[in-house]
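input
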Amino acid sequence: MFLSLFALLLGLLPAPAQAASLTEVTGFGSNPGNLQMFRYVPDGLPAGRPLVVALHGCTQSAAAYDNETGWTRWADQWGFALLLPQQRSANNANSCFNWFQSADFSRGQGEALSVRQMTDRMAADHGTDRSRVYVTGLSAGGAMTAVMAASYPDVFAGAAVVAGVPFDCARTVAAAFGCMSPGSDLGARQWGDKVRAAYPSYTGPYPVMAVWHGTADGTVAPMNMNELVEQWADVHGTDTVADVSDTVQGHPHKVYRGSGGRAVVESYSLTGMGHGQPVDPGSGEAQCGIAGAYVLDADICGSYWIGRSWGLAAQDGGGTLPAPSAPAVTAVTDASVSLTWGAVGGAASYRVLRDGAVAGTPSSTSFTDSGLSPGTTYTYTVSAVDGSGATGAPSAPVRVTTTGAPHACHTDNNYNHVAAGRAHQVLGTVYANGSGQNMGLYNVFVTHTLEEVSPGHFVIADSGCPLLTGAPAAFPPGRSPS
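output
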């Protein structure tokens, strides 16, 4: 039943048009989700360009999702790198991302961490602008897109879910099918709380969210679009009364604005379309894609409008506002840095970057970045954002080192972690001392990096050590599953 029902999500697609353009990458981290990594990088792409992570649906592959959906066209035309994670049949017989398993959708674990590690590898190899990293996906890949936006809001600036479901809609196979159809009807605050619980210590901005769904989708019920809108509107602190209701190429489109008038949630209701990714084959300015099974000619190119909403067609965020003065440091502690800068005329808000990633979007000319690691050096820049959400030129950088001693980092196999007193094992499974995070089997073949965030309290830091001090544990401190 599991295999047959999940096969409904997506059928086999035609032979890929640009498989030869893809390159597989290995050695991108501990890869706890056992995924494959593929990338498409336009020739001569300079450093400092955006990155799009595109997640395929069930029975698909990276090669069946790159050019068919139009993403390689826009990568070439607009100048960004494309990362395409790929599921293995050993993890899921129909090659679905396991969006419904907590071991794969939780921060610091499983498939979600594997995708994060791929993103870090792309940034290291290609000098990605860490403030312009985006994620999108179809069906099971759309559900996994919501996972990445919720579990790693510090990594992604924007997300677009196509024919997917809200984050943490299900935790079992049976619940997954009920979530897909008829759907799960929760209140906006209930949905939003699920996202906030994914990274409870996080205080920064969340990714903007776009939701695309066919009105005739018989596989993932269209009500999921409304539930996703409710979830992410609540996360952004706004309501579900649309500020803009119009049509785009004949399809109803709504925009929900947050503080400062910025568009934080969008929805596209694709009239008469079934389950799939919308494309509009042709050579026109806004056309893209190759129609096929679950890549549907809906007279609208989803990747085009998604990419434009993220500002991929514009250089440097698309804004024209000048750079603020270099930020001045007003206070430093073991875990925080306070900054101030001069006002920019016409600015609705400001975007503060820490080491290339968005740390905050204050409306005033001061900001305190908290949850940092002691004894660690960070680099900050500030840009002005206009009323349309376009970001202007960045300020000169300032480097700041927090006070205190840096956290110790330990990379070793699970057997040695237990022997050294950094972890313990229960019935053959290893858990980090203090945080209780699941580290996998008790043997010498599984390797992790552990960070000691306080005496005797260790957290998994495979994606980079030190982490921010607020990184959550899989279980409350001192607990392990019994």
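quick obs: DSSP finds ten helices and 26 strands in the chain.
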